Amino acid sequence: MTVISPSENANKTRSDLLAYATLSLISIFCAVPFFWVLLASLDGNAQLFLRWPEQWTLANYIRVFTKEDGAKWLFNSLFVVGGATVLVMVLAGLGGYALSRTRAWWKLPFLYAILLIRVLPPTALVVPLYKFLLTLNNAEGAILRPIFGEYARPIMRWTGFIDGYLGLILVLATMQLPLALWIMKTFFDGLPRDYEEAALMDGATLVQRIRRVLIPLALPGLAAAGLFAFMSAWGDFLLPLIFLSSPELQTLPLGLFRAFLRINEIDYGLLAALAFIYLLPAVVAFGFARRFLVQTFAGGVKG
Amino acid sequence: MALNVHERRTERQLLLILLPSLALLLAFVIYPALYSVYLSFTNEALTGAAALRPRFVGIRNYARLLNDAKFWNALLVTFLFVVGSAVIGQFVLGLVSAMALRRRIHFRRLFSSIILLPNAAPEVVAGFMWISMLAGGEQATLSRIVSFFGVTPADWLQVFPLSMIIIVNIWRGIATAMILLTAGLSTIPTEIYEAARMDGATPSQMFRRITLPLMMPTILLYMLISAVSTIAVFGLVYALTRGGPGGATELVSIYIYNQSFTAFQLGYGAAVAVVALLISLVLGIGYVRAMKVEV
């Protein structure tokens, strides 16, 4: 029986209004801080507090790329985070497939172990990581310097473990790996085995099966794992703070942080423009990841 | 179960393609975690004599922790931060949003997009946005807003430092709570509510007798996930206050960083890190057990 009495209807309207009111309040709380970045970045005379610009201008954005090192920071961030993301996708694609298809005894212990790894706070790991990477870096330098002489330096910039792209890429990727492995494992669990078995019947090797059958089927899962890895690595501040010191290697969060430390001569318009440029890829990635985000968390709840 | 030759070869190949991931995790997570334990028993430093020849000092670092007021302060600040922002703030606002978004109202997607937005902001950007909201005394955005309601403006980050970082972290984490709790709510069959309504139950009775009990597994999982991720917060608070003023916002994560990279006491910093690792591991084991029940 679905007869709605008048009082019940009024009740419904009232609780709907309540829902609108609470959601509006929470939304205002969530949105207001963003206005400063947006408005100040377009303000010719930006201040630390939120205000409506008197003169609208794109000059702040232009200055980020011409007068400041914005372009360099953006490139460094894209290169390091992009590299880490690709590495995560490749490793988690392979590893997730293995975790989904294997029937070995180590499967469940391993899956729970990587959940535990995710729990460890990065701040508690960076000191030993720093020392370890320093050792690797010194060893690498000791090998490269006698061979390449003065050319060892530019090589180390790309392949170094401390103050080089490679070390940061490897560590960033490792931090994102546990979640990515879980995503890919769950994703492959949902893929029917028929295709692989058909390919197996045709005598395809593991490599052929992965390349011709699994990669095309796995693309949505890889996209999800990649988006998550990109978002977390893009937002990370601690690892570049510790592992990079050369100005030419600085990434966006570091450039932003250092720009803010210039006490008394902070250029708020420039800072806001830089922050907006840093914010944008994260928001775009988040927009794409939204769907997966809900699924992943829902998966965590339902198992 | 005996595997045939072919299956055994496939299993070996599967292990082989997992190996690169395993190697990275061992090298950059497991080894540093164990190395951290080792470091905590030495007087290792970043500069000075101890940097050249670190010595094994036994449990001296841990003994020092017991008498270190700043360490206990960091633990207390972290505890209040986790309870205030994750256990209470994000949870309540996330639950309220999730329940409101279940109603068939307009602009649902818009509301949820806006609530998700803070989660997308990189730590440092979030920090600066909130500096613009809070810093600058009477000039601060928040001061201007609240003075409209007759509240005296203040230098918020100086006067209420811990409350402010709690509010900022609540802002950042409503989305996670909302998503998780929405997923939990969606598992409760609507028939139960209809039956309760037939029996004349009030909304608050339904919330206490149906929603909360049935949500308990989700709430537990949320509490563990959010506590663990809140203990790990570093960049957001570091960009806002760098632990100050006077240690008021010096979380354990910031204390580790300051000890290791500002005071250069790597051994002592590692002892603090080991404490943080142990706390996270205990929570993490609870999290894994909760997942095991669900999986």
TrEMBL record, chain A:
The keyword Membrane applies. Keywords: Cell membrane, Membrane, Plasmid, Transmembrane, Transmembrane helix, Transport. Residues 74-289 form the ABC transmembrane type-1 domain. PROSITE patterns: ABC_TM1 (PS50928). SUPFAM superfamilies: MetI-like (SSF161098). GO terms for cellular component: plasma membrane. It is a multi-pass membrane protein. GO terms for biological process: transmembrane transport. It is found in: Cell membrane. The chain crosses the membrane at residues 17-39, 73-98, 110-130, 164-184, 213-231, 268-289. This is Carbohydrate ABC transporter permease. It comes from Rhizobium grahamii.
TrEMBL record, chain B:
One of its GO terms (biological process) is transmembrane transport. Pfam families: BPD_transp_1. Keywords: Cell membrane, Membrane, Plasmid, Transmembrane, Transmembrane helix, Transport. It is a multi-pass membrane protein. PROSITE patterns: ABC_TM1. It is found in: Cell membrane. The chain crosses the membrane at residues 14-34, 71-98, 110-136, 156-181, 219-241, 261-288. The keyword S-adenosyl-L-methionine does not apply. It comes from the Bacteria. Gene3D superfamilies: MetI-like. GO terms for cellular component: plasma membrane. Residues 76-287 form the ABC transmembrane type-1 domain. Belongs to the binding-protein-dependent transport system permease family. This is Sugar ABC transporter permease.
